[in-house]
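We emphasize that the prediction below concerns an isolated chain of 476 residues; any contacts that depend on oligomerization or on bound cofactors are therefore not represented. The input was used exactly as deposited, without trimming of termini.
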Amino acid sequence: MSAPSGDGARTGARLRVAVAGGGWAGCAAAVALANKGVEVILFEAARTLGGRARGVEVRGLALDNGQHILLGAYAESLRMMRQVGVDPDAAMLRLPVQMRYPAGGDGMDFVAPRLPAPLHLAFALLRAKGLARADKLALARFNSAGRWMGWKLDVDCTVAELLERFDQTERLTTLMWRPLCIAALNTPPERASANVFLAVLRDSLGARRRAASDMLLPRVAMGALFPEPAGAWLVREGHAVHPGVKVASIARAGGGWRLATSAGDEQVDAVVLATPASISAALLAPFAGCAALLTQLDGFTHEPIATCYLQYAPGTRLDLPFYALLDDPQGGRWGQFVFDRAQLDPAQDGLLAVVVSAAGAAAALPREALASAIAAQLAQDFGRPELGLPVWTQLITEKRATFTCAPGLLRPDNATPLPGVVLAGDYTASDYPATLETAVRSGQAAATAILAYGALPREKRSLSHDNGEPTSGSVQ
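Result of the prediction step, given as a token string:
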């Protein structure tokens, strides 16, 4: 999927920008730049766009490398989907915010009615089943305190410390706060940033619009939700998209940059590095002025996410599109959410998807053992023995799904010490965790930085020896 990129010559004063990385951040940056009249060349090392939210083929089914939930608060993601021709209302199932466990167990049933905010949450709390009066009062107290303090602490701490500070009950923590924290931050409450967690609650449960708290379940593969339509849109607009092409190095060349790629060299005015932090660090490593940035990029630790697909006989269904599951790793219960894929895509009849976030311990198990344990958990929770005997299972583990969202984590800005080179990715500075919305916003911020750079007179786009020249004779 590409359009001719020419021999590297610029047409008039039109800025020519390379975007390295075709995930959600890279695609967002490319579309935002193209929309402002910039000539864009998008490179993606994989053969398909999407990055860590991509499609895979399993036994003839078009699945994802992980099951996702988006939020109505993801305004920029939804806007960019529409810009490239995707109708979010058709591409995703919109549900009111909820935390619903299988009936008959020791869970809870919390679902918001479609009323204006914040009435929808007040009514949901009043009608919630499985919560004692003390649990409901604790939740109401936490919500009020969050609004009063603007959903932000002066000094960050862990989510576990935050919940203890606001006297959240053990049951409410187990059934709501812990699964929400793990799902949103992919980091256990004992290690997760309270301020990042509060930012997610601010823009969802604490939002002024009820729709912001809605949960959006993709009906289509993640690639078809934004990256692939973005690539097609770029090509239609006359830009170049090169899947299967890796950027190996960048080097200063005259007033711009030369990229060495697996398909040859490319001359551009500016570069967006929308690659993972470790790869961006490798591309920036030869430049003396990037030492402090490299320390940040190399300082991230990561958390895995595992998704177990379980195929059952045709017609096997759950009553709801998805349920929360009560996990207990010490008891061999790993699943945290289960999705009935047939209610999202009729072609996936009898297919369930179970998500295990912050899956470090789960990923250490043999694949067959983990899948068997998840099937047994489903059979027990739903009281349906047939769920313990799937026709087949497929476990997909994304080992570096997100960075560990720890308190006080310093994330790099989009800008780098190299003029005309910026970063984009869900790991860049933000009050959000590593979500699709964070990636999109980072891509937009990178585009804004590139446009500001492009507006400078050409003589001011020069690099000093200290920050622009490699530490050795060439960039490898």
